[in-house]
Amino acid sequence: MTKYEGDAPKLIRQDAWYVAILLGLVLGLIFLTWRGTTFLVLTDGCTSCNEVVFKKYSYFFLGGFLGGVLFAIKYLYKVVARGYWNVDRRLWRIFSPFLSGGLALVVGALIDSGVLGLTTKVASGAAYFSYGFITGYFADRAIDKMQEVAETVFGAPGRKDAIKAPTKDTKPSENAVDDSVKT
User: Fold this and answer.
1) What 8-state DSSP symbol labels residue 123?
2) Could you give the CA distance from residue 104 to residue 109 in angstroms, rounded to a whole number?
3) Both ends of the chain: CA-CA distance in Å?
4) Domains of the chain: which residue ranges?
5) Percent of the chain topping pLDDT 70
6) CB-based contacts of 159, cutoff 8 Å, min separation 6
7) DSSP state of 88
8) What contacts 70, CB < 8 A, 6 or more positions away?
9) Residue 90: C-alpha distances to residues 65, 94, 96 (Å)
């Protein structure tokens, strides 16, 4: 028996299937990239395409995407179990893995270019994938760190200035719930 009413159990199952399908998809893409199939399919006829560069950035993206999917799975089962599941957070659950993959791709490019002051000392698919995974799994923190860098470089006002902490008279923000289930 579930404590959720109405369409919630059905929607929770849909969310679970969605992240399970994404998990299978990303694992398949990792295998196809490692095997070289992805490069051949996507660059058919491209004479200037470089497979080594393609694989490097694919591993950054796919590692981040996998990190985002695994975080979404962990988040989903925790919010369901703790009674915090809410249909209003569905967009986050849908797009979070894609955000994680895209962010990992950008962080990978920043690392590869040396802009962040970091360099990859190991030139292997596993190293690129690992950087991507860590970025994707901790995407919220990575975005916060990039915000700090942007504020330092561009002098932009911080995003945190715009987010007000909830008081006892206001409804807690989604961030307050998210923070409680991240551990």
Assistant:
1) -
2) 8
3) 26
4) 8-156+174-181
5) 81
6) 147
7) G
8) 23, 137
9) 17, 6, 10
Per DSSP, the residues of 40-87 read: HHHTTT-SS--HHHHHHHHHHHHHHHHHHHHHHHHHHHHHHHHT---G
Q: What is the pTM of this model?
A: 0.78
Interval 127-148: pLDDT, tens = 899 999 999 999 988 888 888 8
Predicted confidence band of residue 72 (pLDDT cuts 50, 70, 90): very high
Q: Which residues contact 73 (CB under 8 A, 6 or more apart)?
A: 19, 20, 23
* 82: amino acid identity, one letter: R
Residue type, 164: K
Characterize 93-102 residue by residue with b for buried, 16 or more Cβ atoms within 10 angstroms of its Cβ, and e for exposed.
beebbebbbb
Instruction: Tell which residue, 49, 39, 62, 35, has the closest CA to residue 128.
Output: 62
**Distance, CA of 142 to CA of 60 (rounded, Å):** 14
